[in-house]
Design a protein that fits this description.
heterodimer; A: 299 residues; alpha/beta; Rossmann fold; four-stranded antiparallel sheet; 11 helices; 10 strands; disordered N terminus; B: 308 residues; mainly alpha; MetI-like fold; 2 domains; two-stranded antiparallel sheet; 79% helix
Chain lengths: 299, 308
């Protein structure tokens, strides 16, 4: 049986917690352009403990997806190292499951065949991988859709299948690149809950990239906040909220305090990312009290 | 706690649905409208529903039928009255004459051997073209060096119409039969190659990455990702290639053939059997239509995910 099945069928969780340590050390990445090298990401250090849920948050273009792609093995840093369990990442591998921002299910495969894909690549025989895929789809509440093609699924279901597919090979770590960015607000909340539940059952290390502050706080044990380009770590914020978390926690004072802190960090960086001219204008607007007198003043 | 309170407020009006007060918001009316509820079962009747679902297709079929009948009528009138207005219909056979000839041809083994021979040539030329062009396109799409090497050669030969190859083909191949198949092959080869290549260039890189992160390597990547992702374009190429194959075949048969439906049509002109010209043309049209329908059918079988 696959590792994933053993994990979900109630094998001692502690056995799995041992692996899945992600370490990014002194990470730099430069792009070559006609005008010379451009620094995209500089001097980033990130550590994800085994079984930990860590988010990276930052303004668009700060290089947070770049970091994730480097852990996945799709690109190499200009300097610095990326290791998982002390082993240097040299290319993509089924040990590091990836969920993409865009829907990345194979349109020519049914839901079950999509979930089976990783196991097929491992050379596991058909009947065993079919059984494994069925079990996983059952856990994710997708049994009724196993023979459907992705085209006929809703966005939330597609992404759920995407997560199940990435978990099916029993990876050490799960990497998610703004997986819920394309979903509507309601579906997004449900998916966050689904992901939390899966993560708690599997005790797998998760590195999650998002630009949604609420999402980052709700899901994570720790949040890294990145600066605008060239991207580097601006702050590392622990999220000491109790687990299991329910959606109602988003209204608690602890949550709101964390949210306020992250918001001011992000706003500063987002404005920087927009450039200097926009900066002055936008800051002006944001600092104003939106009272009637002030609005009159602006007009 | 706060959102709990919100839930209970919104749930209340639904609970006392039966006591519709005059002040109830009008938005909720449609769901309880008795007239509408009574209408629903009538539309749900299977035959009506079936007709309703496919009304667009019925409409198109009806209009198409009317258009065809109008065409036949025009043809009939033009030939019966031997219209001569710069374009001459003096010797053009009437639809009745063609129908009569078609009925006689249906029982004529010689006519059938013309048709089957043409079909055989198409099948051979087209299949060989598909078997070479599809893998070549896939490999060219995947390996840049190979593409950069082969593409210029293909671009030099591509603009040459298959018909222009007739004299060369006769020189190249020992028999007439082989040169005709070769010309059919040439006609369908480039559309299939170019569409496959185009499909390869459109494979979503996210799907390739997804497969990589699930452990797919070299050949598996080809079989599981590149090939199925390119299939819709391959089938576009096959459909176009089949059309060009018929064009090339008929031209080749008219020039160098001794049998085949193209030869039959050309020979009819020489032998002053004008009904046979129209019969040959219609026959070519029907065969072309049938072969592209066949490809579409195979495409739907091979790509079940494309159907909604």
């Amino acid at each position: 049986m696959s590792e994933a099945i053993r994990g979900t069928m109630g094998a001692p969780a502690a056995a799995r917690v041992k692996s899945g340590l992600i370490e990014i050390k002194n990470f730099n990445l430069n792009y070559e352009t006609m005008d010379g090298a451009v620094e995209a990401v500089t001097a980033v250090d990130i550590r994800v403990e085994p079984g930990e849920f860590v988010s990276i948050i930052g303004p668009s273009g700060c290089g947070k997806s770049t970091l994730l792609n480097a852990v996945a093995g799709f690109l190499k840093p200009t300097s610095g190292t990326v290791t998982v369990d002390g082993e240097r990442v040299s290319g993509p591998s089924a040990d590091r499951g990836m969920v993409f921002q865009q829907y990345s299910l194979f349109p020519w495969k049914t839901v079950r065949q999509n979930v089976e894909f990783g196991l097929k690549m491992k050379g596991i025989e058909r009947s065993r991988r079919e059984q494994a895929a069925r079990t996983l789809l059952g856990i994710a509440g997708l049994s009724a859709f196993e023979n459907r093609y992705p085209q006929s699924l809703s966005g939330g279901m597609k992404q759920r299948v995407g997560i199940v597919r990435a978990l099916a090979t029993g990876p050490k770590v799960l990497l998610l690149d703004e997986p819920f960015g394309a979903l509507d607000a309601q579906t997004r909340l449900i998916m966050q809950q689904v992901l939390t539940n899966m993560w708690q059952n599997l005790k797998i290390s998760v590195l999650f990239v998002t630009h949604d502050i609420d999402e980052a706080i709700f899901l994570s044990d720790r949040v890294y906040c990145m600066t605008a380009r060239p991207g580097t770590i601006k702050a590392e914020i622990p999220v000491p909220l109790e687990r299991p978390r329910k959606q109602s926690i988003m209204l608690s004072s602890e949550f709101l305090a964390l949210r306020r802190g992250l918001m001011s960090l992000i706003r500063e960086e987002s404005l920087k990312a927009m450039g200097n001219e926009a900066n002055a204008l936008a800051l002006q607007g944001l600092n104003l009290d939106m009272s009637a007198e002030n609005i009159g003043h602006i007009i | 706690m706060q959102h709990m309170a919100l839930n209970s407020i919104s749930a209340e009006p639904i609970a006392d649905d039966s006591a519709l007060a005059p002040g109830t918001p009008s938005i909720r009316k449609p769901s309880t409208d008795p007239q509408r509820a009574a209408e629903t079962p009538r539309v749900a009747q299977p035959v009506r529903r079936w007709f309703w679902m496919y009304r667009g297709k019925f409409r198109a079929a009806a209009i198409g039928l009317v258009a065809l009948l109008l065409f036949l009528l025009t043809w009939h009138l033009l030939t019966t009255y031997r219209v001569n207005i710069y374009i001459r219909f003096l010797n053009v056979p009437s639809p009745e004459q063609v129908l009569d000839r078609a009925i006689r041809a249906a029982g004529d083994p010689k006519f059938f051997s013309h048709v089957t021979l043409s079909c055989r040539r198409i099948l051979l030329g087209f299949l060989i073209a598909a078997l070479i062009a599809v893998p070549l396109g896939l490999i060219m799409g995947r390996f840049r060096l190979f593409r950069e090497f082969v593409f210029p050669i293909s671009e030099v030969f591509r603009p040459i119409p298959a018909i222009a190859w007739v004299p060369m083909a006769i020189m190249l191949w020992p028999t007439n039969e082989e040169s005709i198949v070769f010309i059919t092959f040439l006609g369908s080869f480039f559309p299939i190659l170019l569409n496959t290549l185009h499909g390869m260039s459109l494979v979503d890189p996210v799907l390739v990455r997804a497969a990589e992160s699930l452990g797919a390597r070299r050949f598996a990547m080809f079989r599981e990702v590149y090939f199925p992702a390119t299939l819709p374009h391959i089938f576009t190429g096959l459909t176009i290639g089949m059309g060009v194959a018929w064009v090339s075949l008929i031209a080749a048969e008219m020039i160098s053939g001794q049998f085949g439906i193209g030869y039959f049509t050309w020979e009819a002109y020489s032998l002053v059997q004008y009904s046979d010209i129209a019969l040959g043309m219609i026959c070519i049209g029907v065969l072309g239509l049938a072969s592209s329908a066949l490809i579409r059918g195979v495409g739907n079988l091979v790509m079940p995910w494309g159907r909604s």
